């Protein structure tokens, strides 16, 4: 099983938001860790939180138990807060909630070491900038014998570049029982989980260590580290997208933890995917789009400069052009919305054509209302559709209309002031000016 520690105060983040709720790829760090534990062989997870953590309630489930660490007395104490969840487990792997990039494969590797006979397995990493991390002290024969926290380390120990990632697997029985022997005799006066290693060395435990790249185990104590983790997350997401999609300039495309990209998709530069976007096979996302909560069907084309959000669905082969915003709008197959349009709380039938500058007036200052546009309808440019309103199949709305009443199928609706044309009444027109214009041709 996995124990995820998330009770720390996170003061270095300097935020009203608890540290582990800060997001990487649009997902809270602690949820990345819980997801990795779930994908690994850890059937159950115990989440340890502080006393004032209303956010934790929604994270409990059949497989995740939530435990409160009454006082933040250190990582060793935090693990013990979940003690009741250990019953029946063969091994416990401790994960830190501010370590969002740890992978399921690594968690499995650590559990395998203790299930394969080790008492304790420590996950290490190397960095040229070890400041702030616990240093791993090895014996001459290369066995791990202690982990020294920065504040307690001697100058020689501080020079060590092999660091503790925080991931530790502990076999049930004597090794797990040894947690209660941890004392708070260190510079911070905290119960350090890392002291389990020195206790284990004294008790003759069989202790092993594994190594992971820094990019996978970096801890996010402050916002600079959070930004580094985000950069690494994006590198991974881009690499994954490149398996099936062409990205003209991958470094300028930003993904969310749940972005789904189909086969043969093309993504131009400077595209941001917020949460809940799926892009169907063969679709094209042109430059400078910002997309969240949107399903893009196969063969659709979106952008450049499109914004889609709030539960939008773009049908197969549909075309969303520049400066178009969609919000909670369902567009059927082959719909064209080519320029400068806002469709909010709307549904648009197959092959309808929405002219430039069309606006659904969905909000009356109090409530939101829907606009229904039938299949094959044509909305002329610069029309305002004042919701609630429906435009029937095959209906035609003349450009510049302000539509406040339903338009039946196949009808032509014109809702604008009639044009009055008055010869020679231009304020610019006088006999002389007219002559000048004429002579200029
Ligand atoms: C910890 C390790 C350090 C390691 C580093 C890796 C210890 C003593 N030190 O240091 O060796 O190099 O992680 O990133 O473990 N937490 C609780 N309750 C507490 C204190 C902390 O739940 O009382 C949680 C925090 O929410 C956090 C995790 O434990 O998710 C780690 O705590 P943190 O204070 O970030 O430890 P570091 O100083 O980073
Ligand atoms: Ca940390």
Taking the alpha carbons of the first and last residues, their distance comes to 86 Å
Tally of structural domains: 2
Mean pLDDT: 96
Structural class estimated from helices and strands: alpha/beta
Largest sheet: 20 strands, parallel
Reported by name, the CATH topology of the largest domain is Spore Coat Polysaccharide Biosynthesis Protein SpsA, Chain A
Beta fraction? 25-35%
Poorly predicted runs are none
Q: Cofactors and ligands present?
A: uridine-diphosphate-N-acetylglucosamine, calcium ion
Describe this structure in words.
The protein is α/β, with parallel strands linked by helices and 441 residues long. It has 2 domains: 2-217, Spore Coat Polysaccharide Biosynthesis Protein SpsA, Chain A; 241-413, Hexapeptide repeat proteins (UDP N-Acetylglucosamine Acyltransferase, domain 1), CATH 2.160.10. The chain contains 9 helices and 34 strands. The strands form 5 sheets. It has a 20-stranded parallel sheet that branches. The protein has a 7-stranded mixed sheet with strand order 5-4-1-6-10-7-11. It has a 3-stranded parallel sheet with strand order 27-30-33, with no helix packed on it. A hairpin with a 2-residue loop joins strand 2 and strand 3. The longest helix has 19 residues, at 223-241. The chain is elongated and about 105 Å long. The mean pLDDT is 96. The site of uridine-diphosphate-N-acetylglucosamine has 30 residues, from strand 1, helix 2 and strand 10.
């Amino acid at each position: 099983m996995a124990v995820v520690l998330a009770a720390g105060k996170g003061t270095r983040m300097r935020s009203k938001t608890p540290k582990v709720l800060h997001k990487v790829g649009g997902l809270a760090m602690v949820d990345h860790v819980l997801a990795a534990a779930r994908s690994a062989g850890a059937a159950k997870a115990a989440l340890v939180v502080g006393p004032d953590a209303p956010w934790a309630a929604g994270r409990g489930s059949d497989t995740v138990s939530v435990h409160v660490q009454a006082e933040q007395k250190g990582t060793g104490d935090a693990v013990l807060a979940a003690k009741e969840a250990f019953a029946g487990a063969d091994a416990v792997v401790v994960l830190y909630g501010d370590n969002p990039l740890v992978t399921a494969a690594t968690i499995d590797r650590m559990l395998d070491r203790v299930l394969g006979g080790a008492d304790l397995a420590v996950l290490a990493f190397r960095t040229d900038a070890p400041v702030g991390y616990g240093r791993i002290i090895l014996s001459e024969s290369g066995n791990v014998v202690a982990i020294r926290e920065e504040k307690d380390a001697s100058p020689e120990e501080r020079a060590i570049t092999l660091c503790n990632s925080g991931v530790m697997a502990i076999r049930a029985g004597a090794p797990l029982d040894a947690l209660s022997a941890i004392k708070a005799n260190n510079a911070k006066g905290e119960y350090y989980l890392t002291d389990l290693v020195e206790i284990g060395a004294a008790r003759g435990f069989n202790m092993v260590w594994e190594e992971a790249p820094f990019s996978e185990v970096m801890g996010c104590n402050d916002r600079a580290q959070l930004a580094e983790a985000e950069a690494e997350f994006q590198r991974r997401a881009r690499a994954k997208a490149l398996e099936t999609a062409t990205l003209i300039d991958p470094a300028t495309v930003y993904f969310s933890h749940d972005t789904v990209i189909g086969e043969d998709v093309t993504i131009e530069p400077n595209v941001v995917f917020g949460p809940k976007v799926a892009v169907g096979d063969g679709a094209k996302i042109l430059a400078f789009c910002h997309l969240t909560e949107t399903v893009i069907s196969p063969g659709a084309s979106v952008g450049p400069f499109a914004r889609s959000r709030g539960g939008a669905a773009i049908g197969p082969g549909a075309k969303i052009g520049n400066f178009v915003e969609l919000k909670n709008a369902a567009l059927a197959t082959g719909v064209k919305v080519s320029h400068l349009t806002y469709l909010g709380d709307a549904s648009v039938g197959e092959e309808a054509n929405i002219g430039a500058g069309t606006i659904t007036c969905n909000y009356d200052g109090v409530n939101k209302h829907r606009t229904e546009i039938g299949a094959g309808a044509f909305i002329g440019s610069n029309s305002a559709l004042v919701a609630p309103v429906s435009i029937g199949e095959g209906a035609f709305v003349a450009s510049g209309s302000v539509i406040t009443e339903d338009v039946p199928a196949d009808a032509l609706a014109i809702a604008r002031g009639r044009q009055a044309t008055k010869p020679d009444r231009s304020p610019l027109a006088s006999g002389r000016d007219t002559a000048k214009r004429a002579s200029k041709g």
